[in-house]
Amino acid sequence: MSVLDFSDLKSTGHILKYNGEPYQIIESNFMRTAQRKPVIQTKLRNLITGKVMEYSFKFGEKIEGADVIKRKCQYLYADDEGGHFMDPESFETIVVPKALIADQIKFLKEGTDTSIVFFEDKPISLDLPIKIDLKVTETAAGVKGDTATGGTKPATLETGHTVNVPLFIKEGDIVRVDTRNGAYVERASQ
């Protein structure tokens, strides 16, 4: 069991254990008022459920660090059970429950390398790269002259995910997508 220092809470990204579950600090604000102990107001994201909560840590409060481990794995396929991944060193198949990765699976294609985050030896989430390149499999043809308005159109990617792209994107193009919000970033060089 690791114990976090009060000053560790000032920086975002630290992972701590709160009520037996792993939380990541996504915002923190150090506050000190006259004649009171310092307080750090935080926004915490539950790494299992994804829910965000606010909590104020008081100076001297015991804060337990969460032991999370990231393991590099390769995506195989998804089914009703969840996402199936292979550990490239042991060739062991790891199944991450669908409920935990439903928002992330739409960015993965067979053979994609990613990292699985484990908490107490159980997979809890995926650590995807911020941007992923995917091929456009279906989109409407752009009409000449429409590009002046800077409009967008829906495009279906090779994983089945639909994203709004600029009108100049056509089927077969490779586009870069932000995995944090699912939005189009740019056309990738082919």
Description:
This protein is mainly β. It contains one helix and 16 strands. The protein has one helix at 98-101, and strands at residues 2-4, 15-18, 21-31, 39-46, 52-58, 63-65, 68-78, 82-86, 93-97, 113-119, 122-127, 131-139, 152-157, 162-166, 174-178, 184-187. The chain has a six-stranded antiparallel beta sheet with strand order 1-6-2-3-4-5, with no helix packed on it. It has a five-stranded antiparallel beta sheet with strand order 9-8-7-10-11. The chain has a five-stranded antiparallel beta sheet with strand order 14-13-12-15-16, with no helix packed on it. Strand 2 and strand 3 (21-31) form a beta hairpin. The longest helix has 4 residues, at 98-101. It starts with a strand and ends with a strand. It holds the Pfam family EFP. It is found in: Cytoplasm. Belongs to the elongation factor P family. One of its GO terms (cellular component) is cytosol.
Care to give the gist of this entry?
The protein is an all-beta fold. It is built from one helix and 16 strands.
**Percentage of residues in DSSP E strands:** over 45%
Number of extended strands: 16
Strand order, sheet with most strands: 1-6-2-3-4-5
Largest sheet: number of strands, sense, barrel closure: 6 strands, antiparallel
Low-confidence stretches: none
Terminus-to-terminus distance = 47 Å
Shape: flat
Helix content: under 10%
The SSE string, one letter per element, is EEEEEEEEEHEEEEEEE
Question: From the coordinates shown, what is the CATH architecture of the largest domain?
Answer: Roll
Indicate the radius of gyration in whole angstroms. Answer: 21 Å
Reported by name, the CATH topology of the largest domain is: SH3 type barrels
